[in-house]
Amino acid sequence: MENEFQFDLERYMSQKNFERIKEFSQDKETPFLVVDLKKVEEKYDELLDSLPFAKIYYAVKANPLEEVLRMLVRKGSCFDIASVYELDHILSLGASPDRVSYGNTIKKSRNIAYAYSKGVRLFATDSESDLRKIAKNAPGSRVFFRILTDGSGADWPLSRKFGAHPDTIFKLILLAAKLGLEPYGISFHVGSQQRDIGQWDNAISTCKYLFDCAEAEGISLKMLNLGGGFPATYISPTHETSVYAAEIIRFLKEDFGEELPEIILEPGRFMAGDAGVLVTEVILISKKSEANQYSWVYLDAGKFGGLIETLDESIKYPIYSEKTGPVQETILAGPTCDSMDILYENEKYALPASLEEGDRLYFFTTGAYTQTYSSVCFNGFPPLKAYVLEK
Length: 391
Ligand SMILES: *Cc1c(COP(=O)(O)O)cnc(C)c1O
What we know:
This protein has 391 residues and is α/β, with parallel strands linked by helices. It folds into two domains: 9-34 and 274-389, Lyase, Ornithine Decarboxylase, Chain A, domain 1; 64-267, TIM Barrel (Alpha-Beta Barrel). It has eleven helices and 18 strands. Helix 8 crosses helix 9.
């Protein structure tokens, strides 16, 4: 009647690698994140191998740990930054400013001026006001224009807030040239953890349309920025990287032919996600009533401790226990005194019924959008610690 606990560990990491992380974790107080640096490097190589003509601008926000950034600087990666703080951070780790793109479309004039003074010459924009600020504070710079996408098909959509309609973008391109900037390219983001590859097709077609409109006005755009959206390995299945690459190449050739513009990628989740394991401990197991079929399992990591992407249960992390035997359907919650600090309630994770207080649970694929999302001191809990395994 009851099912045995099952977990396809090899889907997320090798048994050997898990043993290594477990051993490293043994004497450390939970909760914490362990990041396997080699895995980030592998993902970088994997993406570049499958789209060798592309330039990678790592989205620093996904995981800005120093070791991660240093390794990417060494490998020759470029960087997509969103603030002057990320800019200072990446420059201090040895990246030259010509490898930095200021990808945030929401910028203060003085921050644009600061980035310009540090040597940054590539800026994203999606509005007239921002464009005028760039023209004034970063004269002559290259600008690329972000088109709106609706984020459908993505587990963590980035829709509505960023980008503008193609007609508006076209006007911005003309204005940029008038303002003495270099209209350089078009960008989009199809939504994070995008599992529908067809979303790139629609966006690339819109870009091609804008390239043609600009060309008709004597403006040659040179760059196409395909954004992020490439997936990490969570519970919901996704295509292999090679399938993403093959499809995207097909879409590009359909629209642009053999002579592709300069292609930029801005992977974040794809690069860092699979490299992280969040180690947590069961604090309490309880039932709301004797007849209730679900047990509540309260952990020492929750929404305020790095797992905010469980909002609306959008990202479903693979959760591993070393206990075995029959399963019990559980509701998982964090340790704070906020009732929104529930991780999964609709999705009932089937965990071993033998799970006890004090046992550890391992959240796989937590290398992206976790540590920096954790709160400073809510309920007195410190931010999530992170360790990097460099070998
Ligand atoms: C967050 C972000 C990315 C990274 O997105 P992923 O889906 O994590 O790869 C890329 N580009 C921009 C502009 C972003 O804001």
